[in-house]
Amino acid sequence: GKQALETVQRLLPVLCQAHGLTPDQVVAIARHDGGKQALETVQRLLPVLCQAHGLTPDQVVAIASHDGGKQALETVQRLLPVLCQAHGLPPDQVVAIASHDGGKQALETVQRLLPALCQAHDLTRDQVVAIASNGGGKQALETVQRLLPVLC
C-alpha cells in the first residue's frame, strides 16, 4: 500500500507525460499486489514492448494490472517472440493469456504444452488459448493435458 503510493507519486509524471498513460491507468496498475514493482516494470518495459514487440500501451497496462504484473510483463517480453513465431499465436492472444493473475505461469505453460495439446490431443491453438486465458490458466492446462485422454 504505502510503497505503491510512494511509487505512484514518483512515477505518475513520467508514466503520464513520457509514456502517455492516464492517471487512472497508473492507479489500476498500483492497486494490485506487487503494484510498486509492476509500475517500475511498466516504466522500464513499456517502450520495449510497444516499439520492439508491437504492443499498445493499453495492452501493457492490461498485463500489468493484475497480481504479479511485473512477472507477467517480463515473461511477455521474453516469450512473445517464441509464442508468435514458433507457435503461431498472434500478439493479442499472448496478451489475453498474460492479462490475468498468474499470467507468467500461464504463458510458460502454454509454451510448454501447446505442441502436445494440439498434436497429441487434437485441440486447436484457439482452444488452448481460451483455457489459458483465465486466472489459474497454468493449472487448467495441466489438468486438461492429464484428464483429456481419460475423459475422451
From TrEMBL:
GO terms for cellular component: extracellular region; host cell nucleus. GO terms for molecular function: acyltransferase activity. InterPro entries: TAL_effector_rpt, Thiolase-like. It comes from the Bacteria. Keywords: Host nucleus, Repeat, Secreted. It is found in: Host nucleus; Secreted. Its main location: host cell. This is TAL effector AvrBs3/PthA. The lineage of its organism: Bacteria, Pseudomonadati, Pseudomonadota, Gammaproteobacteria, Lysobacterales.
